[in-house]
Amino acid sequence: MKAIFFDMDGTSIDSLPVHIDFLKDMSKKFNLNLDLPSKDNGRRIAASPMSAVFRKAGFPEELIPELNEIYKTSFKENYSVKPFRGIKEVWKALKEKGFIIGIVTSNHLGNIKSALGEDTTKLFDLIYTADNKDAIGKANQLKDALSKLNLSADQLIYVGDVMKDYNAAKEAGVKFIGVTYGWEIEKNDEFATVDSVEELKKRLLNA
């Protein structure tokens, strides 16, 4: 194994509770009075990309383009998202062992930099976000990474927390690890899962 790529929301950054706050604020802004979940049961509206979250939360289809623009331009300024405890140490340990590390996320680059900080963002060799214009969609981004890094599919692991992440990895032909502490994935027999950042660290360092 030579490269490990990470999803961000729910895998690397603890963003679900903050996204619930954002959805509630948008519901108030547009006078919708939506029945939104509490932070403890937010998984029922978890999805990717953000437009899918808006749909699952009950926002009208005609508002979604405007909501996407608000999310892209102002989320990072008004909502504070932090990495999961211990995940930065995972990335640093992987770099010290010589692994290539990257990001494949449906979020926007500005939001990722705000959550991680500039110094941590610089740890990554490749970063693919919703703003990427060359390779669109997670499967294509993983394939593009393989091409850029001159790697075979069995030399890359993608770590994610929703089934869309798994399906992208499967389409790209790369290995996948699902985290059960994130937005959607639970233990199953279809692919490997981990229940904590510490368990993820142990598995990846032995990859």
Per DSSP, the total helix count is 9
- Could you please say which CATH topology of the largest domain applies here? Rossmann fold
The tally of structural domains comes to: 2
Strand tally is 6
Helix content: 40-55%
**C-alpha end-to-end distance:** 6 Å
Q: Are there runs of 5+ residues with pLDDT below 50, and where?
A: none
- Assembly of the depicted chains: single chain
The CATH architecture of the largest domain: 3-Layer(aba) Sandwich
Which value, in Å, is the CA radius of gyration? 17 Å
In what order do the strands lie side by side in the largest sheet?
3-2-1-4-5-6
- Biggest beta sheet attributes: 6 strands, parallel
Structural class: alpha/beta
In percent terms, what proportion of residues is strand? 5-15%
The CATH homology group name of the largest domain: HAD superfamily/HAD-like
CATH class division of the largest domain: Alpha Beta
Approximate shape? globular
The arrangement of helices and strands along the chain is: EHHHHEHHEHEHEEH
